[in-house]
Design brief:
Layout lengths: L5 H8 L3 H9 L13 H11 L18 H13 L13 H24 L5 H44 L10 H20 L7
Helix pairs in contact: 1-2, 4-5, 6-7
Protein name: Elements of external origin
Organism: Polymorphum gilvum (strain LMG 25793 / CGMCC 1.9160 / SL003B-26A1)
Amino acid sequence: MQGMSERQYAVHVGLSRGAIQKAKATGRLVLHEDGSIDAAASDKRRAETTDPSKIRKPPAPKLKPVPEAAVAAVGDTLREQGLTAPAVGGGTTFLQAKTANEVLKAQERRIRLQKLKGELVDRARAETLVFRLAREERDAWVNWPARVAAPMAAELALALAQAADAENGNAKPAVTTALIQRLLETHVRAQLESLAEVRPRLG
């Protein structure tokens, strides 16, 4: 067989075999000597003799509806950048959607770059670190009274002894509010300075 059979040519042009037989009977196909169909020549003749208004047009592809959440996200992205966003219920144009997509890609690249530079940290890791630091600071203050009680008592005794010497033993020195305040301030500041030396490592 030099060319195509009716069935083969029907598949080739996307028509039924009956339509091919009808075209063959009306002389709209070019045949080889053995009766098979010359596909290239038949395509050309059919194009020349077919009424354009009767050519079957492929059905338009069915587009899936865009979720309202996606449309709202496009509008939010555009507004964040100071760009024109679609009105509520007004739909989104292709240009607006493309612009929002480019904005999001740029933001994603910026965040990725900041992570590479060490400017951003993992949120869960940061929250864990802050919780650990807060717990350590709480424990430091809970243990602070027991740690400074003895030094404060010794300093208080020394201060009273010095006051007694200054008075030549004529009067018994008293524990004053000013003395207690001075001792507390000294030890509280020392505690704060030690806590300030803690440096969180977020890397």
